[in-house]
Amino acid sequence: MIFVKSFCRLFLFLAAFTGSAAMALETVTLLDRGEPYDAMLADNGLMWIGHSRLQFNSNYRLEVYQPDGALIDRVTLSHSLSVIKSMNNGSIIVTGVSPTSRQAQYTVAHLEGGKIRTSTNEIAMGALITFWITSMDGRQYFADIGGNPDDNSDPGAQLPAQTIFSSTGSNYNYLGARVSMPVAGTSFNGKLLLVSSQGIGQFGSSLVEVDPRTSALRVITQSADAKYRGIDIIAGTSNLVTSALGERKLRVIDTITGKTQREFQTKGYPRTFDLTGHCIVVGNDETNVVEVFDLKSETDKPSFAAEVAMPASEFSGIKNIAVDDVTGMVFARASYPCNPLMESCDQDYNRVVKFDAAFAERIKATCN
Length: 368
Hints:
Elements: E1 9-16, E2 19-30, E3 40-43, E4 46-54, E5 57-65, E6 71-76, E7 83-86, E8 92-97, E9 104-112, E10 115-122, E11 131-136, E12 139-143, E13 164-168, E14 171-174, E15 182-188, E16 191-197, E17 205-210, E18 217-223, E19 228-233, E20 239-244, E21 249-254, E22 260-265, E23 270-276, E24 279-284, E25 289-294, E26 304-307, E27 320-323, E28 330-334, E29 351-355, H1 357-367
């Protein structure tokens, strides 16, 4: 059952570049075989996990765990859990869509007295949420990849749509900035940093900066052939980390000059990464290898790595990883939805697993 926490111990091997060592892997929770989202986050010493399916039907639950994998609490939400992000104030924000109203909703949650406390808002008709960007001056900022339905620009101009809006409660206001198909974003020094895609099936993309107060837009860097994906800011610097679809590497780019500062070579295509201390922890989906890159090291190779050595019938591939900054614990999530109309869907290959304490201790020793 999806709600039954499995403590079954499995094994993996540490794919270190200085040797190998056996390590244990624990299943924290099973996900439904139809789970379509990768909602998971390590924040402030807690692990947040989202579920949106149960027996292939909509069933929206938010769970919070200790870094050791022990469940603390779970609550039911009124919307899907497509993305979970940290608000950097002890709270997290979950975005999705209500199955009843078909409108975008977001929930702010925090843990208090061992219980999850939540507050949910529904965005008024017209705006949809692709992901949350930041909170600033009492407003939440979201990206809407589809754009403003009331955008009155001249169709002949072929301009990108207005795709960023701010919200207080259910109200929304689109910024004048025109960011083509934003697919990821964060904030830095009061500005919004976004990955702008050129379009479906096109590999060109840009990293852009938007001033939320004036809607002024600045292109940080652009590429005709790299399709950038996730981004995150390296603490204490003006640099961001990003990966691109189809590339076996990570890039570190200066947000001021747009210049690539470094590149790290990965053992596979980096589907997901998380920053902890002065390290980047990377998850490669097709190889199921998690690599740890030390930003203080001069090499472009990982300091060490570990593999989710489970058969495809039990772990479909790394879709998201999360690292607890306090303990160094690494969680990996497999959530590739099975189609019951085309497949038998008789195997529980969607789950969240946790690497053991030995891997966590090595991350703490290297990265903190």
